[in-house]
Amino acid sequence: MKGFSFTQFTEDDSKGPFEKLLDIFMELLAHTSGDADEAIDWLRELDKEYNLTDDFYTIDDFIEELKRKGFVSKDQDGQGMTITSKSEQVIRKRSLDQVFGKMKKSKSGGHKTNKLGRGDEVIPETRPFQFGDQTDRIALTESIRKAQINRGIEDFTLREEDLVIQETEHKSLTSTVLMIDLSHSMILYGEDRITPAKKVAMALAELITTRYPKDTLDIIAFGNDAWTVSIKDLPYLQVGPYHTNTVAGLELALDILKKKKNPNRQIFMITDGKPSCLKERDGSYYKNSFGLDPRIVNKTLNLAGAARKSKIPITTFMIARDPYLQEFVQQFTEANKGKAFYTSLKGLGDFVFEDYESNRRKNVR
User: Does residue 236 sit in the same domain as residue 355?
Assistant: First the structure.
């Protein structure tokens, strides 16, 4: 059974009562998978314990202000509340600030490489003009100076051999598929692993759509099966009574990336367990939760090798430290020539961000 643990609440005097409660409410929504009614119930419990409100501004006043400002609305049957797209966006933005730190929106949204070429960021280097170069990239001041050196000021003429081009830094596009494990183990043993995983997914989605808008991000949830998840649905993801069909997730991820035109493609996989499920041709499931089943493992490793042949690196973020699981991840990583991180929940966001930033500086060809 999933539970919550809370630490001492420290009040921020720079915020008004609505803003203070909104911060807590949004955090609770991340834990309740977007269930507004449950989040309000938890907020009332916290108010009883920590006296978050007073007689001048109550929880009921906060709820009315949530409605008035468009954060929540009545659900379909009119009996409860549901969050709006405005709340979904706030949750993603908060996740970005919490996980990756506050970042300014990029106007161009490209990925720098160490190669020079046609791009959209001007750099100091110049080179001689070549047929086919864009005229708006001609460095006029440098071209005139070169013409003066070649022919003097009195008989000034500007010729093709005088023209120099302002270099630009080539920027690559990156297509990423993020796989999130929704198997039952993500909430077992008294540890909530799915909420941090969702926060990382929301932060990565917000990072890419705001700072790197030319990149693509596809999100896959996998349990017994695998399916795509839209960015707006991320807050509502819930763990199910699932096994771990890593094969289905990888097959779907590879199908998505093979349709992308740019050469920079990658898979990020957040999981806490071993592959334990396969779907048979007749629609039934082959499951084995005990140890590493060779039939399931071999098919998983084969897909890791297929991704390597397609030049699609896989980075695995393993939020479990069992030695036999680490051994499997090592085999999987070797088959793909990718990377693996064995991380705690607290450090998960740092690892994902650093790896994404690292990968965007290079072209995978």
Answer: yes
